[in-house]
Specification:
- Helix content is 22%, strand content 38%.
- The protein is an alpha+beta fold.
- It has one domain.
């Protein structure tokens, strides 16, 4: 599953050091407790990291838990930071995400 992750300026998230292109694995994935957290909606990363002091990444997650909360936060056992995205890129990705979801909902209404 593709998604988005934010880290601090040093590529750390909760004292875990990340590196772009490297794959990381955990034994468990429990939302808000263990595993690698990310968001499906790019704009949801702002709920967890400051827009001013953060870095943003497009990620690939495997072995993703089915757990969900109010937003698009997810957790996986395996994650790879594929590419860093600038602030403007995360905003554009968020707009694209919302437009895609809206278009899909409109298609469902029209077909129904």
């Amino acid at each position: 599953m593709e998604g988005y992750k934010a880290t601090d300026k040093n590529l750390k998230c909760r004292n875990f050091q990340f590196e772009v292109g490297k794959t990381y694995e955990e034994q468990e994935a429990i939302l808000c407790k263990k595993g690698f957290h990310f968001c499906e909606n790019p704009l949801d990363v702002f709920d967890y990291y400051s827009p001013i002091k953060s870095r943003y990444f497009k990620i690939e997650a495997d072995d993703v838990s089915e757990e969900k909360e109010e937003d698009s936060k997810r957790v996986s056992k395996k994650i790879t930071l594929k590419a860093e995205i600038k602030f403007s890129g995360i905003i554009k990705a968020g707009i694209d995400f919302i437009l895609e979801k809206t278009e899909n909902e409109i298609k469902i209404i029209i077909v129904s």
